[in-house]
Amino acid sequence: MNRTASKRAALPLRVLWALAAVLLLAPACTGSDTEAAPDDPAYRYQRIVSISPTGTEILFAIGAGDRVVAVDQFSYYPPEAPVTDLDGWNPNLEAIASYEPDLVVLQTNGDLIAGLEALGIAVLAHDAPSVFDDVYVQIAQFGDVTGQVDEAARLAADMQTEIAELIAAAPDASALTYYHELDNTLYSVTSGTFIGQVYGLFGLANVADPADADGSHFGYPQLSDEYLVDADPDLIFLADTLCCGQNAETVAARPGWNQLTAVQAGLVVELSDDIVSRWGPRLVDFIAAISGVLVDVGAAS
Questions:
Q1: DSSP result, 218-273
Q2: Tell me: the pLDDT tens digits for 84-105?
Q3: CATH domain 171-300 topology
């Protein structure tokens, strides 16, 4: 195993999930009962399986949800998604094929993609966006593949409008620092990650950046209590409320953390892990949470 691979293997699964950063679109050529060929604009996949929580949310948001026949165990939003025991961490080819899909949506997995295509099943593969605008690129790709082009364009436009309004509503935050917590072992994100870019929309400064200045942690450094007490962020955002039961009270109970500016000012923000880790339609909710906190901070100052 090379040094890069060994470092990736040492990271928690939830951090590895966030590391994916390459877009890939790989449609195959068979698998539907419709008369049109897969490369025909009139072709519509009728049996879609999604092994991607973000993909599932996008499919339903663009109006293709009625063609989704099965999703993995983590795709429990929206509530009407047909959740199964399909494994989202280690997808199984035979289990997926048992649902007789003509299209499978998943994060990039070379062996699985090859297996599905060998069975004549089309694949829409996608990964976490590396830059913010890739969110809209992915939504457009989903629209192209499912035939929901107009609906996808409308979703992207609505998101862009709402996000612009939320950013405009927030005061200038360039003088404020923040810490984003991925889990309670203090893994964080730098400004170079997609999540970091979301905070960057508001001008917030990331206290984790110096911990990965050379990029050796791929934008996901593990910090320490001492590091964070010394950094003393103005705002703390917890993206481990569901996975790890973290909240303002547990944070305040950590050694030395009760002296942090964010803790004393009541600026420990509890986020939904699911919303933060997915970059589909609910990205707006994540940005709204940041905007709302900044508006409150501005009103109090």
A1: TT--B--HHHHHHH--SEEEES-TTTS---HHHHHTSTTGGGSHHHHTT-EEE--H
A2: 999 999 999 999 999 999 999 9
A3: Rossmann fold (3.40.50)
